[in-house]
Amino acid sequence: MSKRLTKKELAKERFAANIGAFCCPLCGGEFVTTDTGVRCRRNHNFDLARQGYLSLFTGRQTSHYDQTLFLARREVFSAGVYAPLIDEISSLINALGIHEPLVLDAGCGEGSFLAGICSRVQPGGMIGVDISRAGIRLATSHSESIMWCVADLAELPFGSESVDVILNVLSPANYGEFKRVLKPGGVIIKVLPREGYLREIRQRLEGAAPYSNEDVLAKFEENLQVVQSTNLKYQVNVNSLLWQSMTKMTPLSRRHQISGPHPKQITIDLEIIQGSRA
């Protein structure tokens, strides 16, 4: 009877199969795998955590997102709130026609989105990166074959032209780094909120200003060639428990008090932009 591999052993195999895409965050050198993790030619060592993730972030933890937010996000994804978005992004990746693409989710949080598309596409590898160690630790509880990394989007630990698809879902972006690590012919798929996104929460926030994505969209168009753009809008039924999770999930509730009863439905209103290097 064969021995069941631990999370750390499984992660080691995944990283070893894709080690050529990674580079040292300290010197930019190529990695080789070791018994405990990875090492560059200048002997900078990074060990895999027992949970099965690799920390390639060398700065101080500055993320404002904590375990409460990530657990709430997990509950929201489990309830299927973002299932149409997962289907849409999966279809976009499959339509690219790239053979076994290496897919990077930049700003993956606790990993539910990337885990959701994993079974719907046939990638050469999937990598989830977030600066929050709390988020990545929670991400390792997903059973899908994904490489999880703590890393900074401002200094991605990947070689130039190493990634086929970059996903940036409701997360900040660093287009300089995205363009550096993107392969020729690769694509960046960004999901950003539109005016109606979580409208019911915004309407109940005391002192909250109306939302516009014009500045974020302009930044994307300034840095990338827009290939296509689509809108995805739908409503989800909510009960009191799901409402609580959705309000905990959004950072908006940390800056403003939410008042009033929960609505029967909540609006998901998103723009999906596909771009390439200009």
Can you describe this structure?
It is a single chain. The chain has an eight-stranded mixed sheet with strand order 4-7-6-5-8-9-11-10, sandwiched between helices. It has a three-stranded antiparallel sheet with strand order 1-2-3, covered by helices on one side. It has one domain (7-277): Rossmann fold (3-Layer(aba) Sandwich). The longest helix has 13 residues, at 83-95. α2 packs across α9 (240-249) and α3 (83-95) packs across α4. Helices cover 31% and strands 27% of the residues. The protein has helices at residues 7-17, 67-78, 83-95, 112-118, 133-139, 175-181, 199-202, 214-223, 240-249, 252-255; strands at residues 31-33, 37-40, 45-47, 53-55, 102-106, 125-130, 147-150, 163-169, 182-193, 224-237, 265-277. It is globular and about 60 Å long. The protein is built from ten helices and eleven strands. It starts with 6 loop residues before the first helix and ends with a strand. The chain is an alpha/beta fold.
